[in-house]
Amino acid sequence: MPDQGVSVTYERVGAGEAATKDRLLLDDTVIEQLAGITDAQGYSVLGELLNAFLGAVPGRLDALDRAVAAGDLTAVADEAHALTGSAASFGARGMADLCRELRAAAEQSDLDAARPLVATLHVEFVGVRAWLVQFRSRA
User: Fold this and answer.
1) How far is Cα 49 from Cα 124, in angstroms, rounded to an integer?
2) Superfamily of domain 6-138
3) From the DSSP assignment, how many helices (H) and strands (E) are in the chain?
4) Helix, strand, or coil here: 59?
5) Which residues fall within 8 angstroms of residue 112, CB to CB, at 6 or more apart?
6) pTM for the predicted model, two decimal places
7) Spatial distance between the Cα atoms of 55 and 42, rounded to a whole number of angstroms
8) Which residues are registered as beta bridge partners of 44?
9) How far is Cα 19 from Cα 132, in angstroms, rounded to an integer?
C-alpha cells in the first residue's frame, strides 16, 4: 500500500557527497486518528497534543545542537531516541527516520555523521511544524 500523507524531497550533504532522499514528511492518517481522541467531555484533545509536541521539539533540537557541539554522543543518542517516539506519535515519519539514523550514528561514535543529520532534522521539523500549524488552523 503506498504511503499516504505529505512527502518532501531534500538534499542532504554528508561525507563529501550529495544524497537526495525522499521522505514522508507527515502521515496524515496518524493525525486524523489523533483528532478522534476526546476528553471526558467529548472534546478533541488534538490541540493540546499538538501544542505539547510543537513546544517540546525546539528544546530537544537545541539539546541536540549542544550535545553535538560538545561531542557528547551519549546525549545525542538519548535526545534522538526521545525525539523518535515523539515524532512517530504524530506521524512525522521523516523526522522519526532521521532520529533513528542519528541515534545509530551516535551509538557508532560517528560525530561526523551526526552533525549533518542534526542539521537535516532542523529542516525537517520546519516542514512538520508548518504542516501541523496549518492542520490545526483547519481543525
Assistant:
1) 19
2) HPT domain (1.20.120.160)
3) 5, 2
4) helix
5) 14, 15
6) 0.79
7) 24
8) 38
9) 27
Phi, psi of 78 (to 5 degrees): -65, -45
Place of cell 493540546: 48
C-alpha cell at 19: 544524497
Backbone angles phi, psi at 35, to 5 degrees: -65, -20
Q: For residue 16, give the 3-state DSSP assignment.
A: coil
Give Cα 16 to chain centroid, integer Å.
Answer: 24
Longest dimension (CA), the chain: 55
Predicted pLDDT of residue 74: 97
- The strand pair at 6-14 and 17-26 is best described as antiparallel
Q: Which residues are paired to 40 by β-bridges? A: none
Mean pLDDT to the nearest integer, 8-30: 50
**pLDDT tens readout for residues 89-107:** 989 999 999 999 999 999 9
Contacts of 54 (CB under 8 A, 6+ apart): 129, 132, 133
